[in-house]
Structures
1.
Amino acid sequence: MSRSVEPPRVLNIEDLRRAAKRRLPRVVFDYVDGGAEDELTLRANCRAFQAVTFQPRCAVATPACDLRITVLDTPLSMPLILAPVGSSRLIYPRGEEAAARAAGAAGIAYALSTLSGCHLEDVAATSKAPVWYQLYLVGGRDCALSAIERAKAAGFSALVVTIDTAVAGMRERDLRNGVKELLSGNLWSMLPFVSQLLTKPRWLAGFIADGGLMKFPNVVVPGKGPMLYADVTAALEQSVVTWEDLKWIGQAWNGRIVIKGIHTSDDARRAVDAGASALVVSNHGGRQLDGVAPTLRILPEVVASVGDRIEILFDGGIRRGSDIIKALCLGARAVMVGRAYAYGLGAAGGLGVARAIEILRTDLVRTLKLLGCAYIAELDRSYVDVPTDWPVP
Ligand code: GLV
C-alpha cells in the first residue's frame, strides 16, 4: 500500500478527501467534491446520517461478522457498490480501470459511467467481480444502442439507467474554476485558469502521460466518432431519459436494469412498473436538483411502498461504514458510494480506491460488533432510532 494512504496518515474517508485535495488541481477536486447551486442537498445527505442514532445490543458475542450479501442474485463480499463517477480518467490516469480493478479485488461491483475515459471493454476486463454499465442517452439513441451492445458483449451484468439528469445541475464551483474556458481550446481564455494545473505537477505529469484531455470512447456518435469532452454539457441537455425510453432500452438490453435517481415513492412505483430489477434511492449526490430531501429520509417510504417488489439500493452522503449500516437498517439492500472512493482515486489511484473500500469494510465489521449483530443480513429498524419528524411509514 502506498505510504500516502496508509494509517495513521489516512484513517477515514475525510483523510482521503484531504489527500485528494492536495494532489488534484482545484478544478478537478471541486468537480468531485462539489454539488449543485447552494449545495444544500449535498450537505443534507451527509447530515441525515447524524440524525439517525444507533440502538446497540451490548454483551453479545459476534466472533465472525458476515458481510456477504447478494444483489441482483450475484454474491458480493459486502453491501457496497462503486457508483458511476463520470470523468474518472481526469482524476487519475486510466481512472475507471483502476477503480474497477480495486472493486474486483475486493469482491464488490463497479458501475461504469457512460461519461468515462476508458473503453468499456477494458474496464470489464480488469474486474473479477460484477461490472454494471450506467447509461445516459448522450449522443442519441443509436449511440446508446451501440454502447448497450458493446456492454452486453463485454459481460456487464446490469444496466444502470440514471433518470435525474434532464440537464446537468448548476455546479457553480466548476464554472468559477474555469471549466468552460479550460475546455474552450482558446489559449487566451484559458490563461487565467491554467495556474491551478501547473501547481499540481504530479497530477499534471500523469494527465499528460495518459494522453491529456479524455474523450468519451463509449459515446461513439455515428459518423463522428467518440464524443469530445467539451460537447458533453450540451449533449446532456438533449438526452433526457423518459419512462417511454425505458421500454426500448429494456428491449435492447434484455437483462437486469437498475433505475438510479429515485426521489419519491411515486417514481419508485414507476420503476417497478418499468420492469426494473433494482432502483437506487439517489439524488446524484446533491449534484442535480438542489433542495431535494436527503436520500436517507426518503429511503423508508420507498422501502415501504415497493420494498417487496424490487431490490432497493441507496446512495448519498456515505462517508463511514456506520452510514452504510444505518441505510441497511432503514431497508437498503446495499449502498453505492461515489465521492467516498473518488477521493481515494484522486489521492492515490487504485491504491486509494482499495484503501477507501478497506476503510469502509473495517468500519462495517467494527460497527456490527458494537451493535451486537453478527450478520449484515439481520440488520433492521430495531437497531436505529429515527427522528420523530421524519416521514416514516
Ligand atoms: C455526472 O454524472 C456528474 O454528476 O458529474
2.
Amino acid sequence: IEETLVLVKPDGVARNLTGEILRRIEAKGYSLVDLKLLQADRELLAEHYAEHEGKPFYEPLIEFMESGPIVAMRVAGNRVIEGFRVLAGTTDPTTAAPGSIRGDFGRDWGLSVQQNLVHGSDSPESAARELALWFS
Ligand code: GTP
Ligand code: MG
C-alpha cells in the first residue's frame, strides 16, 4: 500500500475547507494514517520546495506557506499518490477541472502566487522524502 503527503495550505485552512478536503479523500476510499495542524517554519518550507529554489514564484510561495497554519496528512491507499493528484486537479485553479478540489474551490486572486488549497506528493520518491520531512 502506497502513502502520500497531503497538505491543506494556509488558504484551505483559513477558508474552513479542511473537512471538505478530508471528506473527499475518505470518500475515495483512502485512509488517514496521521494528521497534524502546524505553523511551518522557513527551514521546513525551504526543504519542501527545494526543487523550486531560484524560480520567480519561490519567495512569494514560501511567504504564502508561512502565512498561517497548515494541515499535514499522511494518507494511504492503492495508487494514492496519483489518485490524490487527480482529486486535487491541475496546479492552476482557473483551469482545474470542475469536480476536483482546485476546480471546485480554487480561486485566482491575481496574487503573485497561486493559492491552490492543497499539495500532494508527485512521485513515490517525493512522497518518501516529504513524509520524512513533515512527519519525522
Ligand atoms: P503542489 O502539490 O503544491 O506541489 O503543486 P503542483 O505539484 O501542482 O505544482 P508545483 O510543484 O509545480 O508547484 C508548487 C506550488 O508552487 C504550486 O502549487 C503553486 O502554489 C506554486 N506555483 C507553481 N507554479 C507556479 C507559477 O508558475 N506561478 C506561480 N505564481 N506559482 C506557481
Ligand atoms: Mg509539486
3.
Amino acid sequence: HQLLREELPGAQVMIVSNREPYIHNLVEGKATLQIPASGLVAALEPVMRACGGVWIAHGSGSADRETVDSRDRIAVPPAQPDYTLRRVWLSDEEQDGYYYGFSNEGLWPLCHIAFVRPSFREADWGEYFAVNAKFAEIVVEEATCDDPVVLVQDYHFALLPRMIRNRLPKATIITFWHIPWPNSETFGICPWRNEIIEGLLGSTILGFHTQFHCNNFIDAADRFLESRIDRESGSITLGGRETLIRPYPISIEWPPSPLATQPPIDECRRRVRERLGLSSDARIGVGIERFDYTKGILDRMRAVDSLLSLHPGWRERFAFIQAAAPTRSKLSTYSSLQNEAARLADEINKRHGVRDWKPIHLVVRHHEQDEVYELFRAADICVVSSLHDGMNLVAKEFVAARDDELGVLILSSFAGASRELSEALIVNPYDTTSMATAIDRALHMSESEQRERMRLMRELVRQHNVYGWAAQMLIHAARLRKRERIMTED
Ligand code: G6P
C-alpha cells in the first residue's frame, strides 16, 4: 500500500481475472461464501487486501443475484472490506465457448504439454473474443481516470491488454500469465497464435513465472510477428509500442493467514489420524489440489503402489491422502480423470490393503483453507508431482504451514517451484520407481536433515513472498510510467 502511494501516487489499481476471489453459492436455500481453489486467487487476494481497488471477475456462484451477497458490486472481504469486487455475468454460451472451450480445451492443454490434445474451434474463439471485449468494456466503465494501473491475469484474457490499450492508451497494463508458455513449435498449433501474441503485446509489462517461459514467448513473437526484439533487455516493440517481458516467480502471503487459527502440530496430527481411522503413529503423505490432469495425480498413486511392492514393510504403517477438488467437470478429460483415479485407488487398495487398513485415501471435495493447512501440518510428506506447472503454490503453502520445520516436500522438476525450492526431493513424475524411492527416502529422513531443508525453503518463501512479487511488477511499472511522462513532456 505504502509502495503504491510512493511509486504510483494517486493511481487506481484494477485486477481482471476469470476466477473471482469470493463465490456465493446457494447451499440449502442460503447464499454461502466459498473461496475457490485457485493458485491465482491465493496469490492475488492478499495483494488486493493490501492495496485496495477494484477486482473485475466472472460472477460464478449459484446464489441468486438479487441477494445482498451476490450483487454485481460488493465490498470484500465480506467481514472486513478492503476492496471492491465487480462481477461480470456470462451466459451459458459465453461460458462454454470462452471458458470451457477456448481457455480450457484449447490454451490450457496447449501450454501445459500434458499429452492432452488441444481442441480449437472457431465458435469457441468467437466467444473468447467477445468475452474479452466485454471485460474491456467493464474496465473502461470502472476506470476513474485515463491512466489506471490494470493487472490482467492469465490465459483467459490474452486479447484484453490490446483491447484496453486501444480504449485507454495511457493505462499501465501489467499482464501476468500464470501457466507455462510452450516452445514456438507447440504454440504454433493454435490457429489464432498471431492474434494472441498481438493481444498480449498491448501490455506495458508481460510477466511469466520463469525466464524459460519468457524466452519461449519472445521466440514465438520473433517467429510469428513482424516485431522488433531486443533479447538482451527482454523487450518487444510492435507498432511503435514496447512491451517488457519479465520473469516474476509468484508466491504466497507471509505469514500465511490460515496459520493464525491452526492448533499445534501434535493436535493436527492427532485429529487427521483419528478422522481417517489411522493409528496415532501412522506415517502420512498428502497431495492436495484441483482434480486436474496436469497435476500427475495418477502418477503419484502409481508411485505409492510401487513403494508398497518394493518396500512391503510400509504396509499398515503408511497412508497417502489425496485431497482433490472437482474442477471443470463438464469437460470429459476432467470427468474421466476422476473416474480413472477412483478406479486406480480401488485397485491399489485391493492389492495392498490389510484388514481395515488401506494405503490410499481419495477425498474428492473442496477443502477449506484451514482443512488444507491442517492436512499439511499433520503430514510427514507432501507430494507435488505436476507433469507441467507454471509455479505450483501448493509446494510453497506446505512449506509455509510447517512452522515446526519438519516434513519433507517431494516436488516435480516440471513445476516452476522446483527452481526455487531446490531443497525439496526433486523427482520426475513420469518415473514411477524413482518417485517411490523418493517417498521411501523421505519417510526415512532424519529430523535434522528435514529441519535443514525445511529452514532453507521457509526462508526463501518468507523473503520472496507474494507482496514482493506484486511490488516488483509495480515498481517496474512505476518506472516505465515516469519515463513515458518525461518523454511526452519533452
Ligand atoms: C490455475 C489457473 C488459474 C485458475 C486456477 C483454477 O491456477 O492458472 O487461472 O483460476 O487454475 O482453475 P479454475 O478454472 O477453477 O478457475
4.
Amino acid sequence: MPTHTLLLLPGDGIGPEVMAEVEKVLAWLGANGPAAFEVTRGLVGGCAIDAHGVPVSDADMAKAEAADAVLLGAVGGPKWDGVPYEIRPEAGLLRLRKDLGLFANLRPAICHAALADASSLKRELVEGLDILIVRELTGGVYFGEPKQIVDLGNGQKRGIDTQVYDTYEIERIARVAFELARLRSGRVVSSEKRNVMMSGVLWHQTVSALHARHYPEVQLRHELADALGMKLVQAPKQFDVIVTDNLFGDMLSDVAAMLTGSLGMLPSASLGEADPVTKRRKALYEPVHGSAPDIAGRGIANPLAMLGSLAMALRYSFDMGAEADRLERAIAQALAEGHRTADIARPGEPTVSTSAMGDAVLAALAA
Ligand code: NAI
Ligand code: MG
C-alpha cells in the first residue's frame, strides 16, 4: 500500500477549525482507502510569528519541500496588523508559493444544484457549472521588471509595471491545462489579449504550437480576455478548462468564483514543476477564503472549501482520482441532504456547525 506524506498548515482564524474536518476525513481514508497517509503539522502565518518570530520557519519550509503535498487553512487577522511588512502573515504564504515554485494555480468553480439559487445569475445559467481556471502564478505583470514609480521632475510621476512572459513559462502552464483537460471534457479555452499585447501574441503562438505538436486530440479555442469575461457571465456552462496569465487569471477566477455563490465553497490547488523522474509535483492546496476573523472561534465556518482542497490533493498529488470523486460526491450529498453552515443558508433556514458539516460529509463518504 502506498504511503503519501502530507504537511498540514492550519494557520490562523478559522484555518484550524476547517482543518480539523480534513483530519477526520484523512483518518477515514487511511482506515478505508487504498493508501496510507503520513501526516506532519506545522505553523504558518500569525501563529508562526507568535511562536518563531517569522511567518514560516526554515524547519517548516523543509517539511513542505519534503512532503508530497501541503494543505493550508488560512493566514492573517487583526492581531498581526502591526507587524513589519516583511514578516506579515501573508509573507509565509508567499514564501511557500515562491520556494516551492508553484506556477500553476487551479481554481475550480462548481455550482452545486443545491446552491444554485445563491448565485448572482439565474439558476438555469449556473446549475451544473463545472469550470477549471488554470492561472499562471509566478510570471507576468505582477513580477516583470522594471516595476517602479519614477519621479518625472515636473510634478508628474510615472507608475511602471512590465508584462513579461517567456516561451517556457507559457508552455509549462499550457501543458498543465491540456493534461487536466484530458482528465475532464477534453476542451481548453486559452485567453490573452493578442490584439494589443505582444506577450499575448507570444502566448497565442506558443499555446497553438504546443497543441498541434502534443495535444491534437484536445479541443482548443482562443478567446480575448475581455470577451471571455463577458461570456463567463453570459453563458458560463460552455466552458471547461480555461488557461490564462497571472493578471487575467486573477480577475477571471474571481468572476467565475462568484457564479457559484459562496466563498466558503471554493477550493484551490497550486502546482509546481513535475520531477522528470518521479513525475511528482510540489503542490499546495488551500481554500480561496481567508481566516475570517469575524466568525473565528465560534465553530460555524464552512469546511467545504477546505475539504474540496483535500479532494484536489487526492486527485492531483496522490493519483487517487476515484477517492477524490467520492469525496466530492459526499460534499454534494451533504448539501443535497440540506446541511447548511450559516454562510450558505437562506434566511430562516436551520444551520449546522463546522464539525456537524464535516460529520455529514463523512457519513456520506462512508455510506
Ligand atoms: P475572508 O475570506 O477571511 O472573509 C470574507 C468574508 O467571508 C467574511 O465575512 C467571512 O466570515 C466569510 N467567510 C470566509 N470564509 C468562510 C467560511 N469558510 N465559512 C463561512 N464564512 C466564510 O477575507 P477577509 O475578511 O478579507 O480577510 C480576513 C483575513 O484573512 C485577513 O487577515 C486577510 O489578510 C486574510 N486572508 C488570507 C487569505 C489566505 O490565507 N489565503 C486569503 C484572503 C484573506
Ligand atoms: Mg484575486
